[in-house]
Design goal:
7-stranded antiparallel beta sheet, globular
Amino acid sequence: MSERSPQGDEADGARVLLLDLAAEPSALDDAHDALDQAWEEHPEVGDAERLRFVMAAMEILGNVVEHAYAADEEPRRRRLTLEVRRVDDGLLGTISDNGQPAALDLSDVTMPGEDAESGRGLALALAALDELGYERVEGRNVWTLRCAPRG
């Protein structure tokens, strides 16, 4: 079950979307559907910007659902949020979850070889976005996604 909050204008940009989801595979479909609806409500967001942002957000969300809760015995207690704001220089997204800390250094992320069956998600997200950040804040993993219009 997801919860979608209404849009609103605030000092840090106009909210496009705010979701609170159970961290389970269905969250990916719920987030994708909610983003599709958000774009209908925000036609000022360009198609290329939408495509790049959605691809990166889905890759990060997929990693969260797959890895952040792998050792949990009670995964239903785990939650994630997705917030998207329209800011002067494009889209600013935040994905936050209460799962295990991610042990990674984004500066070391590279695209794996052709024969690799996994490991492309973060590399694709980095390539699509203008900025991708990760930090652990008060027991939560916080991913920041910035996508500026190009062209």
